Amino acid sequence: MKVKHYVDVPGCPVEVTLDLIDGRWKGVVLFHLLDAGCLRFNALHRRLPGITQRLLTKQLRELEEAGLVSRTVYAEVPPRVEYRVTEEGESLRSIFDALARWGEMRLARHRAAKPKPAGC
Amino acid sequence: MKVKHYVDVPGCPVEVTLDLIDGRWKGVVLFHLLDAGCLRFNALHRRLPGITQRLLTKQLRELEEAGLVSRTVYAEVPPRVEYRVTEEGESLRSIFDALARWGEMRLARHRAAKPKPAGC
DNA sequence: GTATTAAGTTCCCGAAAGGGAACCGTAATG
DNA sequence: CATTACGGTTCCCTTTCGGGAACTTAATAC
Q: Most CB contacts within 10 A, which of A22, A31, B71, B102?
């Protein structure tokens, strides 16, 4: 989600899709939301070892802006914010399944001099 | 293809796959190689308006290192170098098809205040 | 002897992404 | 009064990505 420099090079449909899930984290965030259905900020954070709050916020905002994730704030204290995939985000599920299957095959294929494939 | 910082966070299979095709160009390069079967450097270059030689070289080397693309050099002058997808790269075809289909659906859905979806 | 060609490489730069650490506001809890 | 909890924000820094332009190499054609 960037529309970066290619304002004049709108790009093929493949680019359109990849743009939405590229970067270090967006794919994984979506994967977890698809998996869990609905997650609060810290619950998601716990599933993503290594990401900082700053980045997680950023990714979620971008996914929200792209229309793939919805953000619901409950006026409580302490705050409660729930994230879930939108209908359009849900439509990515089969793609993520395909990506995951392919990744598993690749890990299996290259199971030599590779670290262990830890949980997601 | 980076193995970046996550030497100790091997990542889920989704990450494995996305890592191989992320960035501004890798996806498109693979797309064209899958489309054409075999392309010489400059032929590929012509299909990618905007990329510089430097970057195209870089992307191809990374794809080659990842085992998705093969590079055949013919000892001629002027040089001839042919790129084609490997068997493993070929196995990504269905994923690219899925990405393209989803991207088209998205473009169709968001056909408002959007530039025209030009050819890839 | 000059130009051309294919497939790069080198250098150098600016922009963007990624990341660490501290800080914030409110309410309940001890 | 201090602490905890949640969901962030701010500041600042480093790394990576993307890109422009010039240079290279060796054979062949003019």
A: A31
- Domain span including residue B50: 13-109
Give the distance, in angstroms, between residue B37 CA and nucleotide D26 C1': 29
DSSP string, B5-32: STTS----HHHHHHHHH-SSSHHHHHHH
Q: Tell me, what CATH number does A58's domain have?
A: 1.10.10.10
pLDDT digits (tens, 9 = 90+) for A15-44: 889 999 988 899 999 999 999 999 999 999
Q: What positions of strand D are covered by protein, i.e. any atom < 7 Å from a CB?
A: 5-11, 16-22, 25-28
- Does residue A40 lie within any of the structural domains? yes
CA distance B76 to chain A (A): 34
pLDDT tens for B32-65 read: 999 999 999 999 999 998 899 999 999 999 999 9
Taken in order A90, A105, A110, B62, the sign of the CA dihedral is: negative
| Count of domains for chain B | 1
